[in-house]
Amino acid sequence: MFVVGLTGGIGSGKSTVANLFAARGVPLVDTDVIAHRITAPHGIAMPHIAAEFGAEFVAADGSLDRARMRTLVFSDETARKRLEGITHPLIRAETEREEREAQGPYVIVVVPLLVESGTWKGRVNRVLTVDCSVETQIARVMSRNGFSGDQVLAIIARQATREARLAAADDVIDNDNAPLEALEAQVDARHRAYLSLAHG
């Protein structure tokens, strides 16, 4: 199966672009969706997280206490690595299973931290980056999530730089306040190119 890794910083519009590909019949595998599923009530990661971090990180419904964990991993790099040691292998296994089961000419794998992970580049045929300015990212996330500018900047600071994402990209979609028609035209162009590559 021909695999395109779709990435971009927070607020870049990855989900919008992914949904445009899905509307053209391309199956999506979203690592964020998988991450939420494995940490949902009684998700496969939860026994390991409870054993590693303690019952206080498990919410009453059996899911991950996201707010508590977010606070911990933002302030403690070792804790972040311990959490990733549990979740990343499970996410990878689930991603590979969904890729195998995907029905379509090629598959898009949505990986927000593709550049940061270091291993994804070798697991996809093409890297597609959704790009926009940092100013646009801040405005979108403040509007969408109700975060302060400083909160958004703190998240951006923990992600790969815009320059690093562009350097890792085989293909780029410009989503710096592009109207939907312009975004669709870019997706159509990439879709045609990926169909051609997938069919060899």
TrEMBL record:
Q: Care to name a GO molecular-function term for this sequence?
A: dephospho-CoA kinase activity
Top EC class of this enzyme: transferase
Instruction: Tell whether Iron is among the UniProt keywords.
Output: no
Keywords noted in UniProt: ATP-binding, Coenzyme A biosynthesis, Cytoplasm, Kinase, Nucleotide-binding, Transferase
Annotated GO biological process? coenzyme A biosynthetic process
Subcellular location, in the record's words? Cytoplasm
- Please give the catalytic activity noted in the UniProt record: 3'-dephospho-CoA + ATP = ADP + CoA + H(+)
* Highest taxon of source: Bacteria
Does Nucleotide-binding show up as a keyword for this record?
yes
Under SUPFAM superfamilies, the record lists: P-loop containing nucleoside triphosphate hydrolases (SSF52540)
Q: What is its main location?
A: cytoplasm
Q: Name one Pfam family in it.
A: CoaE
The regions listed as transmembrane in this protein's record are: none
Q: Which GO terms describe its cellular component?
A: cytoplasm
**CDD domains per the record?**
DPCK
Q: Which family does it belong to?
A: Belongs to the CoaE family.
Read off the PANTHER family from this record: BIFUNCTIONAL COENZYME A SYNTHASE-RELATED (PTHR10695:SF46), DEPHOSPHO-COA KINASE-RELATED (PTHR10695)
Its biological purpose: Catalyzes the phosphorylation of the 3'-hydroxyl group of dephosphocoenzyme A to form coenzyme A.
Instruction: Name the chain's protein.
Output: Dephospho-CoA kinase
Q: Which organism is it from?
A: Paraburkholderia susongensis
**Lineage, top ranks:** Bacteria, Pseudomonadati, Pseudomonadota, Betaproteobacteria, Burkholderiales
Gene encoding this polypeptide?
A: coaE
